[in-house]
Amino acid sequence: MFKFAAAVALAGALFSGAAVAQPAKPTVVLVHGAFADSSSWNGVVEILRKDGFPVVAAANPLRSVANDAAYVSDVVGSIAGPVVLVGHSYGGQVISTAANGHDNVKSLVYVAAFAPEAGESVADLAGKFPGGTLSGALAAPVKLSTGGVDLYIDQAKFHDQFASDVPAEQAALMAVGQRPFTEAALTDKSGEPAWKKLPSWFVYGTGDKNIPAAALGFMAERAGSKRTVVVDGASHVVMVSHPDKVAELIEEAAK
């Protein structure tokens, strides 16, 4: 009798929903843009990890599209299983290139990000619509011994330009720790973008002063965005000020 009861219990467990193995969640790879670093994703990472997603916040070199995309491509190539690739600002141009050739990349998420067409640069797109004020907020360029220059946002203008909806104390720390962006990367032309083959999602704020909201909306529509979330008043760092909205969209793309 005992053996029969045990067998029935085992059979019930094997065929119950609890015993059915759940597919592993995709790894979310986060790629920051110019004047930011991987810590800009901290709020989003907390939510994603709490919800059971493996996460990698890649350190985007910000040297050139080819260089940066190759680095992110290597990161993606090291991951077993499906990947959701997420880019902020210039990071959007990077993921549009880095995803090419990787069958494990299932979706793209653009967070206040550029999604260039082949032959376009971020400089082209930033100037396509009025409203951007980045050029007037830049500090004096830093000349590099290897040639070219690095660009920074003037620390005194960083809060208003880059992170107006972030507390002033936090924005001041972000300004000091900002990562420089080469002028060459600003004008690098894109190759064939991965958003033509992969589903994409977009989120951005109406208070973005780096990339005008009109430009972000244009790129989302052109890429055939599955869903576009527009956050009223959000700055260029919408993932810092509204990590919940960004994480929610990433999780939607992960399904």
TrEMBL record:
Residues 1-21 form the signal peptide. It comes from Rhizobium bangladeshense. Keywords: Hydrolase, Signal. This is Alpha/beta hydrolase. Pfam families: Abhydrolase_6. One of its GO terms (molecular function) is hydrolase activity. Residues 28-248 form the AB hydrolase-1 domain. PANTHER family: AB HYDROLASE-1 DOMAIN-CONTAINING PROTEIN-RELATED (PTHR37017), ESTERASE_LIPASE_THIOESTERASE DOMAIN-CONTAINING PROTEIN (PTHR37017:SF11).
